[in-house]
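note to self: the first set is below, dont mix up w the second
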Amino acid sequence: MLELREDVFVTDTDYGTVLLDERSGEYWMLNPTAALVLRTLLAGGMSEDAANQLATEFDVDPRIAIQDVDVLLDELGTAGLVRQPPNAHQDGAPADTTRQR
C-alpha cells in the first residue's frame, strides 16, 4: 500500500491535483492521469489496479499504462514523497509530474 510521508499533502485545486511537501516547500502538479493513479494507490489499490483504471478511463494501452504507473511510483520514491519508496522499474514512459518551486 502506498502512503505519502506525514508532511506531504495532496489537494485538488482549480488547476489540478497538487502534492505539497511541507518539509521542503516544494510542490508537484499532477496531470489527470497521474492524479487517478495516485488516488487509486492511496486508496489501497495495487499498481495493476491503477494501470487498469488508467487504461479504462483514458483509453490507454494496458502495457503503456503499467509503464506509466511504474514511472510515477519511481518519481514519487525518488522525490522522497512516500514513506517507503516502491520497488518500481522505469521503461522510458513519459513522466506524469511536473516539479515546481
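second set (the one i keep forgetting abt)
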Amino acid sequence: MLIFIICISVLALGYKFYSPFVEKQAGIDPLAETPQIRFAEGVDYVAIHPVKAFLIQFLNIAGVGPIFGPILGALYGPIALVWIVLGNVLGGAVHDYFSGVMSIKEDGKSLPEIAGHYYNVVFKGFMLIFTAMLLFFVGVVFIMSPAGLLSNLSYFQDTFFANNTFWVLVILAYYFFATLLPIDKIITKFYPVFGLLMIVMTTLIAISLLINAPHLPVTGDFFAYFSADHSHDILQANPDGLPTWPLLFITITCGAISGFHSTQAPIITRCLSNEKYVRPVYYGAMICEGLVACVWALAGIAAFPDGYVELKAMLAQGGPGLVVNHIASSYLGVLGGIMAIIAVAIFPITSGDTAFRSLRLTLVDAFNIPQSARNRLLLALPILTIAYFMTKLDFTLIWRYFAFSNMLLSTSVLWLATKYLFDRGTFHWVASVPAVITTSVTLSYISTAAIGLNLSADLAQPIGVGAAIIGLLLLGVFHIKHKGQQPTNAST
C-alpha cells in the first residue's frame, strides 16, 4: 500500500510544485486574447468553461489507454508504477502542457503548422505524415476494440447484434456525425459526464484494491512479484524474457507519455478563453491520467491470488478487456460489471471520435481549407471510408505501428518544445531532457523490433545509452552556444 500511496503523492506534488515551474518557462500571458476570442465561428472555436475543458481533455487523451497499457505493463512488475509516475510528471505532463501552450500561442493550430513555424517545411511535412498516420491508427483501434467487445457480449449471443461488422458501422456512423458537428453539440454536452464517470470508477477500484487485493506490493518485497529471493534486477527481462528496456516504455504510453495527446491539444486550445487555463487543463489532465494508470497497474500486479501467472493466463484468454471485466466485477459486483462495459466500449469511442476530429483539423490547417459544412463533409467521408477498410487489417499489426508512431510523435513534440524554449531563452531542460530519454527509447525500440531493423534485443540498452549520451552532448553544445544571448520574447 505504501508504494501506491507514494506514487499518488508524487503525482500530486508534481502538479503542485513542478508544474508552476514549467509554466514560468512558457511565457503564459493571462491578458492575451486567445484564439477562441479572435476566431470564434461556432464550430471549433467555441468558448468552454475551464472545468468542462479539463474533463473533455482528460477523456480525449484517456480512452482505454491508461487502463489497457498499465495492465499489460503489470507483466513487468512494480517497476511499471515507477515508470508511470516519473514518466508522467517529468515527461508526459510536460509534453501535454507544451502541446497546449504552443497551440494556443499559434492561433490554435495543429502540430504540423507549429513545426513549420519553429523549424522548417521539411519538419512540417514529417509531422504531418506521422500525425495523420497516428490519428488513423488511433481511430481504427478505437473502432475495432469496442466493436469486438460489444459483438461478444453474452447478452447479444445468437442475435444480429453479435455481428462485428454491425458494430463497426454503428461506431463509424457516430464518428461521422460527431466529426462534422460543432463541438458544442455533442462533445461539450456529454464528454464531461463520461470524464467524471472515469474518475468515479477509478476511485472505487482503487479503494477496493487497497482494502481487498491479495498482493499489494510493499517496499521490502518490491520484486517478490517475480522471485522469492528478490534477485530480479530493475531492468531485467520478466520471467518470459520480455525485455523491460524498451518494451515497458512502449507498452505504457498513456499514463506516462503519449504522442497522441499532442494531437488533441488544438481541439481544446480553440475553446479556452484565457491562457492561464492551459496548465490545469493540460498538465492537470495528464496528472489525472497518471492516477488512472497507477490504479490499473496496481490492479494487474495485486488483484490476482496467483500473481503474474494468473494475470498472464487471463491476458492470453481475453486480453486486457477481460482483465478489466474480471477486476471490476470481482471487486465492485454488478456495478463494476456495468462500469467495465462502459470503460472498454464507451471510453475508446470518445477517443476515436476526437482522433478523427483532430485529423480533420490537421488537414484543414495544412491545406488552408475553409471550414464550411460542405468541406467538412468532403473531408469526413474519405477519412472514415479509409478507416473502414483499415478495420479489415490485422489488429495486432495496427497496434504495433501505433505504439511506435505514438512514441516517435511524443519525441518530436518534446524537441519542438525544446526549440520553443530555446527561442524564448528560458530553461529548456524541462523539455530537452525528456526529449533525450524518449529519443533513446524510440531508437532502442525501432532498432530491435520486428517492424524495424530487427537487431538482437541485447543491443537495445547499448543503443539507448549511446543515443542518450550523444543527445546530451549535443544539447550541451547548443546550450553553450545560446548562453548569454538575449531572449527574444521571454517577458511575454
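remember for set 2: Residues 226-232 have pLDDT under 50 and may be disordered.
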